[in-house]
Specification:
It contains four helices and eight strands; from the N terminus they run E-E-H-E-E-H-E-H-E-H-E-E. With 181 residues, it is an alpha/beta fold. It folds into two domains: 72 residues, Ubiquitin-like (UB roll) (Roll), CATH 3.10.20; 83 residues, Translation initiation factor 3 (IF-3), C-terminal domain (Translation Initiation Factor IF3, 2-Layer Sandwich), CATH 3.30.110. A four-stranded mixed beta sheet has the order 2-1-4-3. The longest helix is centred in the middle third of the chain and has 18 residues.
Length: 181
């Protein structure tokens, strides 16, 4: 009995990759296992080449004409793809929106403490939402306290820019500050 090659025949639904007989296009641009270009081949010819190398034919670029397929071990291909995705995810920089809350009648030392905390967040690459919370009679003079937010942003102008200006929402007035690019 000769070598019997097991092929993955079905369409892989969970990740959408077509393998071997699941590929229905008549002509394919084929890449070899070492990255060499085999050019445009018929589907049967590409499957034969994959059989000869005892590997799978994997459709990797379905949007092109003709679709791009690679001859490789399917398990190894999935492993490499998953590893690259994890590596890319790890290298992505997450930008969070941090919120600093304060009252309009904040003392100078307290304001400086909030500014130094904001500076640390900005240096780490986070955006900051600075919120003034109004209580009782302070609600009647919300616009007169806008200078507190502009002063806050002015103190950080060397490392940050105002992304969204002062906006009143109910009992709060807020401003969004983002790091300089």
């Amino acid at each position: 009995m000769g070598n019997i090659i097991k092929r993955k025949v079905s369409f892989i639904r969970d990740n959408g990759i077509q393998v071997n007989e699941a590929i229905r296009e008549k002509e394919l641009r084929v890449i070899g296992p070492d990255g060499e270009q085999y050019g445009v081949l018929s589907r049967d010819e590409a499957l034969r080449k994959a059989d000869d190398l005892e590997l799978d034919l994997i459709k990797i670029g379905g949007n092109q004409t003709p679709p791009v397929c690679k001859i490789a071990d399917f398990g190894k291909y999935l492993y490499e793809k998953e590893r690259k995705e994890k590596e890319n995810k790890k290298n992505q920089k997450q930008q969070e929106l941090k919120e600093l809350r304060m009252t309009p009648n904040i003392d100078t030392n307290d304001l400086n403490t909030k500014i130094s905390a904001a500076r640390k967040f900005i240096e780490k690459g986070h955006k900051i939402k600075v919120t003034l919370r109004f209580r009782g009679r302070e609600m009647t003079r919300t616009q007169s306290f806008e200078h507190v937010l502009t002063n806050f942003a002015e103190q950080l102008k060397d490392v940050a820019v105002i992304e969204k200006g002062a906006k009143t929402e109910g009992r709060n007035m807020s401003i969004v500050i983002a790091p300089k690019k």
